[in-house]
Amino acid sequence: MSLTIRLHPQDNVDIALADLLPGAESLGVSVTERVARGHKLANQPILAGTHVRRYGQIIGAATVDIPQGAHVHVQNLAMSDHEHDYAFASEAHPLPAATETRTFMGYRRSDGKAGTRNYLGVLTSVNCSGSVAQFIAAEAEKSDWFKALKNVDGIVPIAHASGCGMAGDNEGYHTLFRTLQGYARNPNFGGILLVGLGCEVMQIPDLVGRARMRDDNNFRHMTIQQTGGTRRTVERGVEALREMALVADRYSREPVPVSELVIGMQCGGSDGYSGITANPALGVASDILVQHGGTTILSETSEIYGAEHLLTRRAVTTEVGEKLIARIKWWEDYCARNKGEMNNNPSPGNKRGGLTTILEKSLGAVAKGGSAPMQDVYLFAEPITKKGFVFMDSPGYDPCSVTGQVASGANLIVFTTGRGSVSGYKPVPCIKVATNSEMFNHMSEDMDINTGDIIDGGVSLEAKGREMFEMFIRVASGEVTKSEALGFGGAEFVPWQIGAVM
């Protein structure tokens, strides 16, 4: 096996596939200093101010002269200008439809959507009702009626840190409103109990009254103040869950076309291998699902920054491409007014894994989206209405981004990681994908799929993408993921808080 890999003929850096010491030789380059696995080394002299390229794309500029064979990282590489030709809709080539019909065993809902799990949820309008929601769920799960259920996976209390101390008609309010309504309607819930305090800004009557919360009407709501305090609310809440559980338990798994899968794609704790193994393999799996009529959601706008031109070219229309650029400009303003900058990302862990600038990280992250045309661009937690590959605006903060995807309708999450990640996202199962074999073996109890064998085992991206697709079907049909087996999902509901907390 080669010690390094060159990802594009125009690249002036190679990627180390093992820890390299001075004197090591690979691809005609003699290493002059220690280079850790996943990090970059110069494959030619790079003059100060010269663009550094990976994947054939700009990832920054050299801050000093870099000799051939030297380690290229934060000590000599920084952000640079990265103007691109957006070439809207110039590469939106439809993928051929699948020649086979595949199904999974899911829960068909009355609105036509399909769930991969069948939970009851105790959703909160405000942080002040979070503990009571947890009391209700815990008390209900001790009941004999709950233990007798056959088709209900569990009860999920959904607490958060917002809902009050906010303006009642601004961007932050409407984002939280969409998020709460989206969770109430997610097809992985067979019923929802909504609990508020009573005096909060995010009023229960507004959430309930503006639109029908659930098509099946398996929905109840209450406030602690009106019900008479904690004990009475818990008693009434448990009784409401009992009534809804009888309805939810009537659902059973049945064959559902894979076109009903809506998969949120995430990466977190990324490393230098993310854009070589796990992310492009997930891109292959995304394309396969799209060919079967399914939907995949790419998000984390702050982590496609600098690579947005690769998506605008795949937009189905100029208007769709311009929607993405509008979100990019919003993010530039958002960071500026909060005294941040887009290159505050990558994180320290990303940098230890070999990623230097947000441009480099973004190019690897975009690979999750495969090659299918981009059908539309959505706001955070906005309902996904188009089939195929789509984009949903979100921060790069993983639990927040996944929260938006679940609210938008995702019924399965796939999460790639190079440094390792431990999280889950009830009511939606999460498949964890390791970018390298070392981490997969080290954290085997948390990882579902290893893509390190693309590098050290000669497995093709196409074969690994097909392996992922087959696991999508198994997990959607009820196979338990590692994060589910460990009990994750109770603390990862993180609505995006935008605006002042007052």
Short synopsis of the structure:
The chain has helices spanning 130-141, 144-147, 171-185, 204-209, 224-227, 230-248, 278-291, 308-312, 318-337, 348-352, 358-366, 398-408, 437-442, 453-456, 461-476, 482-485; strands at 4-5, 13-16, 25-26, 29-30, 40-42, 51-54, 57-62, 71-72, 77-78, 103-108, 114-115, 119-124, 154-158, 189-196, 219-223, 254-257, 262-267, 295-298, 374-378, 388-392, 412-417, 430-434, 449-450. It contains 16 helices and 23 strands.
Spans of at least 5 consecutive residues with low confidence: none
Mean pLDDT: 96
Integer-rounded radius of gyration? 24 Å
Name the shape in a single word: globular
- Which percent band covers the strand fraction? 15-25%
User: What composes the largest sheet?
Assistant: 7 strands, parallel
Number of helices: 16
Helix content: 25-40%
Tell me the span between the first and last alpha carbons. 58 Å
Count of domains: 3
**How many strands?**
23
Structural class: alpha/beta
Strands in their spatial order, largest beta sheet: 19-20-18-17-21-22-23
